[in-house]
Amino acid sequence: MFEILLLSTLMQSTPDFDLTSSMRQQAAPIEISIRNAELSLGRGDHAAAARICRAILNNKPQDPDALFLLGRASFAAAEGLAAAPVALQAYREAERSFLQFLQLVPERDETRIRQSLAICSRHRGAHRGALLHARKAVELAPDNPIAQRVLGECASELGRKEEALRSFQESHRLKPSDIDVVHLLAISLRDLERPAQACLVLEETIAQLPAPSDSAVQLLLVLYTTHLFTNDPDRAQKVIERAATIAPDDLRVAVELATNLYRLGKHPRAKVVANRARTLPDPTRRQRGVIAKILGQLHAHAGQHADAIQELDLCIEATPDDLSALLSLAGSLRRIGEGDRAREVLKIHTQAREAISLVDRRPLPDLNQAPGLSAQAEIIRALVVLGRIDEAKRQLARRRAIAPADPANDSLHSLIQAQETR
Predict the structure, then answer these.
(1) DSSP conformation class of 106
(2) What whole-number distance in Å separates Cα of residue 396 and Cα of residue 390?
(3) What radius of gyration do the chain's Cα atoms show?
(4) Where are the domains of the chain?
(5) In this predicted model, what pLDDT tens digit does every residue of 94-153 receive, in sequence order?
(6) Assign residue 309 a region: left if phi > 0, alpha if psi is -120 to 50, beta otherwise?
(7) Which of 48, 126, 144, 190 has the smallest set of CB atoms within 10 Å of its CB?
């Protein structure tokens, strides 16, 4: 009451006092801060934009513009971060900010916000929530090709193959030049056992691209795997030869060329290509494994089982989930009289096959539900068995972001660390 009387007295005794003007003066610093956040965001300084928005929200927690800009800054930062745990934190901040923004001003809902929310939900393992956001993004802007693509990706992760295909087709119709969408569309068609349509889309797109381009190589590799899907290694060979002509030093192409040459029984050239691939820089763990497997199997065909075992051990060290390499290794071990070790390798083969079946199961578990957390823990254990440590770490980071107090987290972390130090 005293404050009201004091304010009344001040207004009466100060003829120039203007309450509306005073309120505008208080709002002015926020408007300036919002503008500074926008400028920082425009310069790509996401950290500065986020800091400004957080400072505004400390004083005014329900400022919609600050929430919107914080969502944009955090999302952009997450998309550019390589470290999974830090990226997940940024995605969660973006998600919280956008959801609070929509609660305050639902009339300002738009497709870009819903696309971002779908991607944030996917990264924290909430695949059903991601699908709902993606559908809303398309509802708000059905002619937006990015919205359609995001919906396709979300539907695909839940095993909703027909919905995914429709979305990819629509995204491609809206923006035929998007090579990544062509890639996703072809895989979607292939997964629905429509390889002829997949090949047609790929060939038509490749024909419109400049031959010496990364995009052409990307789509040729998809076309190559599509021909393999139809059990046509001869056509696949023609495609991978085209890719090798365009990009002779592309390690992806070299590895696939060596693999298919071996598949076709062209062993001398397969050996030459595999040995050359081994000299190319920066191979992934899986590429190292494939090269070693080809060379190991070639040694086994030549009766050089000691050399075969050496290469196949290298393969399994790099890729413990390679079932055919495990069988080849067991065969070579038996040939040189190491039956006990061969039986151990066959046991590992059985464990790996069961783990692969578990990891590949769809739909993916929802990490916001207790059964989903339990299922995901089994997947992480299977990934460790298969040697897919990077993926196991990403899954654990997701889990910790959603359920930091879950008692299984520490044991899963210890399991991953033990595999890394082996």
Answers:
(1) G
(2) 10
(3) 28
(4) 266-361, 379-404+412-422
(5) 999 999 999 999 999 999 999 999 999 998 888 899 999 999 999 999 999 999 999 999
(6) alpha
(7) 48
